[in-house]
Structures are given as C-alpha cells and as structure tokens.
Amino acid sequence: AITHYYIETSDDKAPVTDTNIPSHLEQMLDILTQEEGERDSGETGPCMEYLLHHKILETLYTLGKADCPPGMKQQVLTFYTKLLAHIRQPLLPHINVHRPVQKLVRLCGDVLAAPTENEEIQFLCIVCAKLKQDPYLRGKRSCTFINMNMYILLARDGRIVVKACEGLMLLVSLPEPSAAKCLTENTELCELLTDRLVSFYKALPQSMDPLDIETVESVNWGLDVYNLKEDAAIFTGKRPLISFLSWLDYCDQLIKEAHKSAATVMAKAVRERFFVSVMEPQLMQTSEVGILTSTALLNRIIRQVTSEALMQEMVYFLLGEEREPETPATVAQNPLRHRLIEHCDHLSDEISIMTLRLFEQLIQKPNQHILHSLVLRSLEERNYLENKPQEEREPLENGQPHDAVDLEEDPLFVDDLSPDSRLSGSDWLGSSPRQSPDHTKSDGKTEVHKIVNSFLCLVPDEAKSSYQVEGTGYDTYLRDAHRQFRDFCGVCQRWDWRGHPKPFEKCNLDAPFFEGHFLKVLFDRMGRILDQPYDVNLQVTAVLSKLCLLPHPHLHEYQLDPYISLAPGCRSLFSVIVRVVGDLMLRIHHIPDFTPKLLLVRKRLLGLEPEGITIDHMTLLEGVIVLEEFCKELAAIAFVKYHAAAASSSP
Fold it and tell me: pTM for this one?
C-alpha cells in the first residue's frame, strides 16, 4: 500500500499526516507484534522474514531521508523505534536491520532544533538500550551513537536533552574496555561535558550570597524543573546556579556509571578543563567578594560530588598528590592548597568561616588522601612524642613525669570543684580497666575516665556557666559523638588504618616534628578563641572535633590523650587549650561581675534572654562559652571512642 502511494501520487507537497502512510505503518507493526506473540520464542514468522528479505527498512530509510512526503522522516523514526522496542527477538544483528539503523543514526542530529528532534532521541535511546543488551554490537559502533546524542544535547527542549543524557548514560556504562577506549578517544564526549560545565559556571553572577549557594535545593540532573519568574524573585542567579549544579550532577553520575578507564579519563578532563582552567584563578584572586563566592561554590561542588574518580581528581586539584610529610619549607609547594589553608585565617571573618566549612565538608568525604594530605602524613612517625629512652626520663610521680600537667593536683583547675563538674570513672565507664602503676593500660591507652575528666576539668568553675542552664549537659554530646563516630568508621573501614599506633622501634623519632600547615592554622586559631568572633570559634571547633572523631590511632593519641609526653617545642590540641585557659585565668580577674555576665551571654545565645544593653568583653565571654562546650564535646568523643575500641576487642 505504501509503495502504491508513491507510484500513484503525483502531489508530493501534501504532509504525510494527510495520507494513509501512518496508519499502514501502524498496521505493519501490529502484524509483526501479533505474529511474534503467536510463535515460540526465537522463531521468525513469514512477515518478519519478508521484512528482512525484501530490505523494507532500507526502503523506509530512503523515504525518510528524502522526507517525502513532508514529515516522512518523523514517521520512519517512530516506526524504527517501535519495531526495536516491541519485538523481543534480537533484530540488530541482522545485516538488513543493522545497516539501515546505522544509516538512520547518522541522519540524526544533522539539523539542530529540527522538528524531528524528539523522535530522533527516542530512536537513539532505544538503540542505546539494545546495544547495552547485546555485547556483539558494542565497541566502535557505540561511538556513532555517542556523537549523535551529543548534537542532540545542544537542543533547546529540556525533555529531549534529558533523553539524550539517558542515552549517553547507557553507552558509557558498556563493560567492554574497547568500548570505553573508543568513547574517550574517538568522540568528543570529554570536551562536550567540560565545555558545557564551563559555560554554565561562567554564566553565574560574579557575586552571590554564600547562604543562597549553600541552601539552594538539592539538584538532580533529570529533574531540572524551574520557573524563571519565581527563581529570579528568590535570589538573583538562582536559575544559572541550578543549571550549573544540574550539569555537574550529570557529569558526576555519568562518571560514576562509566567503565573504570572511561571514568578516569572523563574525571581528568573535568580537572584540567574546569577545575584548573576556570576555578583555580577564581580561588587565587585577591578580591574578597570573588574569593567568598568562589569558595562557597567550591564548597557546594565538594558536597555534591560522589563519584570516586571525580572526587579523586578534585582532591588532587585542591591538595596536590604529595604523600611525604610536610616541612615548614614545603608548605607552599602547592600554591592552591597553601592559599586555601591560609584562607582559614583570613582577615575577612566571612572568608575564614566559609573556608573552614569547606575543609569540614572535605574531611567527611570518603577519600583517604584528604586526611593523609591534611593531617596524617605529619603524624606517621609519632615524632610528636618525647624521644628519650625510658631510663633517661624523669621518675614518675602518680604515674606521670613530675613536670607533666596533672590536672587533679593543679589548684588552677581543682579549687572548689563542684561535684557536678567532673564524673567518676564508674559514671562514664561500666567496668574501668585495672589501674596500672604507670597510669596507662598495657596497650598504651590512658584510662578513659582520666582522659574524660582531664577535658571536663580544663575550664575552671568560675568560667563555667552550662550547669546553671537546663538542657546543656553531656547527653547531647554523647549521642552526637556516638552517631558521628559510627559514620566515620563506616567511611574509613576499607582503609588500611592500624588499630594500634606504629611501634616506637619502627618510628623515626629523630626527625623534627612539624604539625603540618592545616593543623598549625587550626591550632593558631584555637589559641585565639578568646579574641575572635563567636561564629569563627564555632567553625574552628567544628573542624577540630571532626578530626578528633577519626578512628586513626596516631590522630587519637595526638589529639585526645592529654597524658602523652610531647617532644620539646611540640604542641597538641590539649596543650593549646591549657595555654588558653591560663590566659583566661589572668584576664578573669580584670572583668567585674564576670560570672553573671557570662551567664547572661549564654542565655542570650540560647535565646532565653532578649538582646538588651551591650555587655563589655562580649567576644571574650562568648569565647569562654565555646571553650567550655568544646571541652565537653572532646570528653564525649574520647569516651565514645574508648568504648568502641573496648567493644571491638572483647570476645
């Protein structure tokens, strides 16, 4: 009937929808589908034999290419799509199917924003799905479909773009190495992904509110629904921001689904063509507004990236690939890493807070190199400990060197201690381990209740205010520490972290200790907790507490054991806090009505008191409150980590 139409009709200007061709094509599909349903699986019926033997698909391709009558290309694409979708037996291996299909694929994407765009992408997606099913057809053929999907990705219709994205997702996940090699070497896939990412990033406003960037709703590349008027009313730049984050999400998911070798190539392309070429100059600029916006965007990117390959390249971009311990001479070896860490102590509090948030986000990602680069490589040899043979050390008094800080004896910390200010071992520990003469357990772990009380007693009673306000006890910190430590253990369990510190005899204790650039900046900021804004202090302590939660023996020893003997000139988190408390005690006596002022500030921070008259020494008072809460948090972390270790080592 279709053939007769072309023989008998002289008017080739009438649209195909005014003819009986669409209904005849539908009937052909119905006949073929019904025929297959009536036969045993895999058996070819006479109508399918006729279609294959007489090269019907070749004929239809020719008619579709000529688009005669107008709209015929659309009808042919629809017929091919439904045929491949509805017929269960594999058709593509047949030469009289494969050849016209390949020709039709090449015909797709010839014209951007063509009227057949929707039909083209539907056709390409079904071909992609069939390729995924049939290993025989994979390899170089997939490159053709990749390229076709990439013209179509430039379409204006969002629905068509999503379908093209789905087709690419199917193709990059083909398991054959040859297919992966073809996709990355014989197509412009990497260029398309990165160029589009760069163009979306460059469309963002030069200045954006970091809060808008941080709080914009989570973005999924396939659900990018928007209303231009509503978006513009919420904040300027919301639409381009969502477009950028949507495409980033697509790149991330594509790399996650891709064959491992293809994922590595794509991730490296994103690093070189986007992170290095575009983001690095933004992060290295001197404009404070520009630094703040680019850092907030980077923080959002870090939060969103989940694919292993892209995360690895992003981490190498930010921190470098160096593995050896840092020295003061090498801190500036990687200019971007150095600049970002320096921004944690920037003159602008906003930049400091945003950069600290960035690092807080970074150290929670499941990537071992982050923690090794920032902290662990400086602690590998345990050379923060005093390097003296046991016999050369000072004799022990009550299990400690005579010059060690003994909080239980120091009047600075124990004068008029209230019963509520410390907890006995039994309160924190159901069955405290037997106390040994050298104040430590045989495996080197200081008894947990000693450590807990060390942190709880650091802030003296006259500088405490939480016990006077209901609901500010230790319970919340214990629950949070338990949950967060469990989460960190889940992230770190596949890493090669020993359960015990490296033996002394295998450590290079003679090497001079350098805490590393990152810890140096954090300790410097912690040392100024009484003189810097409340929001900065909250962020500094948030980062330090995350590091303390990590289940690494050296980090735990260095950060959470107050009783270790530090090498000369070394400092630890505990020693930094001790110095802060010493400074505080000197300053308290110069502030009249210190205790009632401190309590009033705490109530205001909790919203229990309205803002009223300005209080003198507000920064110091807020710093004291953060210090007290941080010490409680460290005590809770130490307790939770000890119990987890005890539980894992019990029969």
Answer: 0.82
